[in-house]
Amino acid sequence: MALPAGALRHAFGVRDWGLVVLLGLLGNTLFHVLLVTGVHHTSPAHAAILVALSPLFAALLARIFLGEPLRMRQMAGIGLAFAGVAMIVTRGGAGTASWLGDLLSLGASLAWALYTVIGKPLLARATPLAVTTWATVLGTIPLLPLGLPGLEEVQWSELSLGRWLLIAYLSAVTIALANLLWYWVLARRATARVVAFSYLIPLIATVIAVAAGQEAPTASLAVGAAAVLCGVALAHRT
Question: Which end of the chain is more exposed for a tag (fewer CB within 10 A), N or C?
């Protein structure tokens, strides 16, 4: 269904623009810069584990700043799911890590948690589409000076159709649609119940890798997957 003219522009008041800018900086600029730089300086396993702390941060911050109830069952479920993710991503060894990369990855985790919690009150006054759209646009602007030099080195005419489809998928689905759905659900459910589902991301990625023959199924993988599923189910219970 088509949006009415000006729906994005008038979805929230003037006083909310500063908050939207902050959300763009946290969820788009800082998160991506810290995550990419962190992975460059540490091992993928370390980065994955530290970024996976984001649901824990978000649940605690929502309890402190938004007054949302946080039951021990939910914390236990989030912790169990985190343990499952840690088991999945470290089953091949932690690899080479550094304190700088770990610190940057931890910063990315905190940035996403703040993006989640700070944006939630705004969703009571604006649509998830408006908040996500403007936060993404405003958060992308600071990234342009960092990304443009690299884009100039890409041989665009030599990219295959598969590469173009992959770029479209990464842009439209994993960033735009995923962020929109994230805020859409947050507007309707308690933070602790929502953030636990993010632990399904590495699980689904691992299952796809196993199905594609890129990963071998192991006992630690099975135990980690079971921990993630049980943890998410436990955190989602009312």
Answer: N
**Cβ-based neighbours of 237, under 8 Å, separated by 6 or more:** 73, 74, 77
Give yes or no for a contact between 206 and 221, defined as CB atoms under 8 angstroms apart: yes
In angstroms, rounded to a whole number, what is the distance separating the alpha carbons of residues 167 and 164?
Answer: 5
Using 50, 70 and 90 to split pLDDT, how confident is the model at 223?
Answer: very high
Contact residues for 7 (Cβ-Cβ < 8 A; gap 6+): 127, 129, 130
H-only helix segments in the chain: 17-24, 31-41, 44-51, 54-65, 72-89, 99-119, 128-140, 144-152, 161-171, 178-186, 191-195, 200-211, 219-236
> How many CB atoms are located within 10 Å of the residue 35 CB?
20
Per-residue pLDDT tens over the stretch 169-210 = 888 888 889 999 999 999 999 999 899 999 988 888 888 878
Closest-CA residue to 33 (of 129, 119, 149, 112)? 112
User: What residues does each domain of the chain span?
Assistant: 15-142+160-236
Q: What angle do CA 119, 121, 125 make, to 5 degrees?
A: 105
CB atoms under 10 Å from CB of 147, counted, come to 11
Q: Token match 């999945």: residue?
A: 88
- pLDDT interval class at 7 (50, 70, 90): very low
Q: What are phi and psi of 3, to 5 degrees?
A: -80, 145
